[in-house]
Specification:
Blueprint (H helix, E strand, L loop, with lengths): L30 E4 L5 E4 L5 E10 L2 E7 L5 E5 L4 E3 L2 E6 L3 H14 L21 E4 L2 H18 L2 E4 L6 H8 L7 E5 L7 H10 L8 E5 L28 H9 L6 H13 L9 H15 L4
Parallel strand pairs: 1-7, 8-9, 8-10, 10-11
Antiparallel strand pairs: 2-3, 2-6, 3-4, 4-5, 6-7
């Protein structure tokens, strides 16, 4: 009788499911990706999605900091366990160029859009009595975008005048006095203009004159204070006097300009190109900084 063929014992429970690379089972193999600035990844374990803002060495290991869409930052160990567009990746330390880019991004984050040192974790100051007045909504939105952080730290409110035709009445209504200064930013303040004549009268208004500073920029409209290169132009075009300036600009850029809604959308596009003070002309920058200094100065 032939003895039965010996067979290895059967493993009733199979192999240890925790042995080997169990996380990648059934999924494609992870590829290595350098952790460069603004790279958006998802942490597999927590589902946290964010952009790379910093990579550093802590406790003998590399850590990557991810900022989510709400501005919150969370740290994770650099390496495997991340997804990009649903595909697994292994984040690796940035090379020289990536490190330089991260350092530049960190340095930029330490400053506001106006170029001043950012104040973090500080509540906005209660509004002081002094105010800055601008002609219209577009002026106010531009000032807010570039100087908003600084103004909140100082407690300065920006208000709209809806034009300067009745600037004297606006000054009387605000009634500036010691500790309640009034700064005014005027569009197209050039010699011989209507605005220059209005300002000349308003600046000497008693008894308010010592507490009022009126400055202006030479541009037809605050749109023109944005560097034209941000819109792909070498210079802002000359618009015939017979054409409304903003509509003429939109026509030159090939944008819709028939309705007020078209003009509003055009401004949003222009404002969207402004990232920091470097995207604005010095003729506007200097005047706004002058107003901020004036309204925040201690009353003598």
């Amino acid at each position: 009788m032939t003895p039965p063929t010996s067979r290895p014992p059967t493993d009733r429970y199979g192999s240890d499911v925790l042995s080997g690379d169990w996380r990648s089972a059934g999924r494609p193999r992870s590829r290595e990706v350098e952790a460069t600035p603004d790279l958006v990844v998802e942490d597999f374990e927590t589902g946290w999605v964010g952009a790379v803002v910093r990579v550093e060495k802590a406790g003998g290991m590399h850590v990557v900091h991810l900022e989510d869409r709400r501005g919150k930052v969370k740290a994770f160990p650099l390496g495997p366990g991340f997804l990009i567009d649903g595909a697994p990746v292994v984040l690796t330390p940035p090379k020289a160029a990536g490190r330089a880019a991260l350092a530049a991004a960190q340095q930029a984050a330490a400053r506001t859009a106006s170029g001043s040192v950012a104040v973090h974790d500080g509540a906005a100051r209660v509004a002081i009595g002094s105010r800055i007045f601008v002609e219209g909504r577009h002026d106010a939105e531009l000032v807010e975008k570039v100087w908003g952080h600084d103004l909140r730290v100082e407690g300065v409110v920006v208000e709209m005048l809806d034009g300067v035709d009745d600037l004297e009445a606006a000054i009387r209504d605000f009634a500036p006095e010691p500790g309640r200064r009034m700064g005014v930013l005027v569009d197209h303040l050039v010699p011989g203009s209507k605005e220059s004549r209005i300002v000349a009268k308003a600046a000497g208004l008693t008894p308010f004159a010592p507490h009022v500073l009126i400055v202006g920029h030479p541009f037809v409209d605050v749109w023109q204070s944005v560097r034209p290169q941000r819109l792909g132009m070498d210079a802002w075009p000359t618009v015939p006097r017979s054409v409304e300036w903003k509509r003429g600009i939109c026509a030159h850029l090939g944008w819709p300009h028939d309705t007020q809604a078209d003009i509003a959308r055009a401004w949003k596009q222009i404002l969207g190109t402004v990232r920091t003070y470097a995207d604005l002309e010095p003729a506007l920058l200097g005047r706004v900084e002058e107003l901020i200094d004036f309204v925040t100065a201690a009353t003598p």
